[in-house]
Amino acid sequence: MPIATISPQLPAAPPRLRITDVECHTLLAPDFDPGFTSSAQDSFVVVIRTGEGVYGVGECDANPWMAKACVEAPGTHTMGLSLRELLIGADPFAIGELWRRSYIGSALTGRRGMVIHALSAVEMALWDLCGKAVGEPVHALLGGATRDHIVPYASLQPAGASFEAYRDALCASAERAVALGFRAIKTEVTMNGPYAHDGMRESYDRHTEALAAVRRTIGPDIALMVDVQYLWDDADTCLAVIADWAEFNCFFLETPIWSDNLDEIAKVAERAPMPIAFGEWLTTRWEFAQLMDVGGVQVAQPDVGRVGGIGEARIVCDMAKERGIRIVPHCWKTGISISATAHLAFVTDHCPFIEYLPPQLCHERLRRELAAEELVLRPDGTIPLPTKPGLGVEVDWDVVARYEVD
Ligand SMILES: [Mg+2]
Questions:
Q1: % pLDDT > 90, the chain
Q2: Tens digits of residue pLDDT in 157-196
Q3: Which letter does DSSP use for residue 77 in this model?
Q4: Do 318 and 232 belong together in one domain?
């Protein structure tokens, strides 16, 4: 059976364009800290150019040097073709066909993981390019927006090395997010486990205490999500702790168990007192099928810059809808990826929130400086429909030059 893909829906025949160049940019914030659990300290940006001067920009959330190699490596046989060589000379409007050829042509090395992350940046750039070429926003090319606003949730970051400092930093950040107008926030509560903040080793009771403090700070009316970043090894330990979390009325609990441990995930999803969310690491519709059908999660979190691009994320959204599962996309990156996420959300009715890293609250300078998005947070906590062509982002090319690394 041929692999279904998604291409732009256009009201008229598009202009004839040919791809002439695929530029890769590896970016790293000079103040990056490898001890942080924050992938927004680097970026991989792809610029796809045409002979006619129209270009598109895409980004993925993965190690930028590895992503660059995935795009630029020369092809050596039919199961190991070069993504870059596949694109040069091609029609950029054939996004679905280019995705299929890239996926099949790189399968010996790719199929999942890094190559698919890199392909996500390429595919995102093609959507931006096509939108700009016909003067339409990406949501229009995806079939047209089905809603006039979306709701972002603010992703909060901790600070400090003691329990008290960690808890207080989250509460302070939550307070600021609510003051900025956010109606939903996600707090990290990760003071133990494989991605513990700053090497902390706090008890699970203290995780409960920190979550309680954040809920107290924001009051009962703001939606609250919690991310524990693969804290527990098994369902029973996890369930014993989160039984006490029912009173915090969490919209979801993100990644409580190691991502590959689908049987344990399924046990948690069945018995937890709140919906369970997973998907930030996953690539392709096939990994999401397993997550939904074996893992039994209630919320799927495809990341447009990791899952395989905007089209692959759309396919995952459709699969979730068929199964009655909600979509809350993951996105921990610059305005390029946040915009791509927003365009997807405008055509996805079962997407109550999108992840949004507020530039005012984050220390990641690439998020603050690399790209200005068209998205505006209104006082009621919603984002209205974007109207600019493509993804609607303005990249600051001086910033690209400043943070480019070899
Ligand atoms: Mg997460």
A1: 96
A2: 889 999 999 999 999 999 999 999 999 999 999 999 999 9
A3: B
A4: yes
Task: Output the CA 55–ligand 1 centroid distance in Å.
Answer: 32
Cα(38) to ligand 1 centroid in Å equals: 10
| Domain boundaries, position 288 | 149-396
Tokens 């992350």 correspond to what residue? Answer: 117
Residues 34-48: tens digit of each pLDDT: 888 899 999 999 999
Same domain, 192 and 131: no
Token output for 103: 């996926």
Backbone angles phi, psi at 85, to 5 degrees: -65, -30
Decide which of 135, 169, 187 is a domain's last residue. Answer: 135
Residues 220-269: tens digit of each pLDDT? 999 999 999 999 999 999 999 999 999 999 999 999 999 999 999 999 99
DSSP state for residue 111 in the 8-state scheme: S
Centroid of ligand 1 to alpha carbon of 256 (angstroms): 10
User: 226 alpha carbon to ligand 1 midpoint, in Å?
Assistant: 9
Q: Has this prediction a pTM greater than 0.85?
A: yes
Question: How far, in Å, from the CA of 81 to the mean position of ligand 1?
Answer: 32
Distance CA 342, CA 361 (A): 19
167 Cα to the center of ligand 1, angstroms: 18
Supply the pLDDT for residue 1: 64
Distance (Å) from CA 77 to ligand 1 centroid: 37
- C-alpha of residue 198 to centroid of ligand 1, in Å: 16
CA of 342 from ligand 1 middle (Å) equals 18
Question: Residue 228 C-alpha to ligand 1 middle, in angstroms?
Answer: 7
Rounded to an integer, what is the distance from CA 257 to the centroid of its chain?
Answer: 19
Distance 147 CA to ligand 1 centre (A): 26
Cα(53) to centroid of ligand 1, in Å? 38
> In terms of domains, do 65 and 161 share one?
no
Cα dist from 8 to 124, 144, 204, 244, whole Å:
12, 11, 48, 47
Domain CATH for 253: 3.20.20.120
Q: In the predicted model, what is the mean pLDDT of residues 313-338?
A: 98
Q: What is residue 37's predicted lDDT score, i.e. its pLDDT?
A: 87
pLDDT at 158: 87
260 shares a domain with 290: yes
Q: Do residues 159 and 105 share a domain? A: no
Q: Quote the ligand 1 centre to 222 CA distance (angstroms).
A: 19
Instruction: Compute CA distances 132 → 2, 21, 60, 155, 206, whole Å.
Output: 29, 17, 20, 30, 50
- 11 belongs to a structural domain: no
Q: Does residue 51 lie in a domain region? A: yes
